Amino acid sequence: MRASLSRRQFLTISAGSGLAGLVEGRSPVLAQGLTPLNAGMSFTNLDAASAWVAKDKGLFERYGLNVTIINIQGGAKTVAAMAGGDVPVAFIAAADIINARSKGLPLQMVGGLINKFPYDFVVAKNISSPAQLRGGKGAISGFGGSSDFATRYALATLGVDPSGVTLLQTGDETSRLAALQTGQIQFTVLTAGLDLVAFDMGYKPFLRLYTLDQPYQHTGIAINTAWAKAHPGVVDAFMKAIVSASAYIKNPLNIAAALALIHTHLPIDENHLKVAFQLYRDRFYSVYPMVTGPGIEFILRARKMDQPATDFYDNGYVQALQSVHFAETAGKT
């Protein structure tokens, strides 16, 4: 757990003078000037919607922060930047944080953006039964990553032993789709909604992983705990902006505006974006982005790690905001 304000202290402040500042759209930190903060981002997809909204709508500034979002290709590079203190906060896959923390790095999840497998399992056009996948080849972005977990889970769900197939590390979704087109592989996973390009080519989802009940901590927000111990107010302000952005996204009145904003960061086909965004709003996004304990446990079990799931995350920041109905207050400002 974080070594900062106790929850009782936080709630006392939020319910008193701090809450008055929030109602007026201000924060106690703001009166002292904006605090600069670099935040890393290891992906560019709809998982990042709350970050883009918080930045472009001035929500970080509302709570006293001058945030620079730094796009970093890949979880390993993002972990290195976090460990070195270059980006003490990051939008990143939980699997990367678990791997880093298990090796002794002071990193921890404090928010859960996507708490299910956000994938469709897509197969070659000549595949009509799971049995045809045995002995075949599939594509993932990298071993130990979310696409790896998702692919193995999909195979097991379909009754196919993952050890009986060959998984190739081909990179991002564009590369995996290209490998499927050229016949190098027979199956892969593509992000739900954003795989509509594949469907336009005639491919069909063999299994929609997000419709299953399996909790999985896909992506979220992580911190360098050593830095956070010295900057608890900055972390709280950052999470206030994210919760405010999440509430904005979930408000049906903001759909058109949110889509226009997101499209500037994710310039895919406009119709594809509309479908994908609706799916994410309905199935994935939450106003209070909590880390899912069972989702962390799933990763730990898959990796045969004995550490308790609570070592890898702290929902205290988001829970404190939820306990004072922060989103409802922020939505009125």
From TrEMBL:
Domain of life: Bacteria
Residue ranges annotated for the SsuA/THI5-like domain, each copy included: 48-250
Signal peptide: none
Pfam families listed in its UniProt record: NMT1
InterPro entries the UniProt entry points to: SsuA/THI5, TAT_signal
Record SUPFAM superfamilies: Periplasmic binding protein-like II (SSF53850)
GO cellular component: periplasmic space
Keywords of the record: Signal
PROSITE patterns linked to this entry: TAT
Entry keyword annotation includes Signal: yes
Signal as UniProt keyword: yes
PANTHER family named in the record: ALIPHATIC SULFONATES-BINDING PROTEIN-RELATED, TAURINE-BINDING PERIPLASMIC PROTEIN
Record's protein name: ABC transporter substrate-binding protein
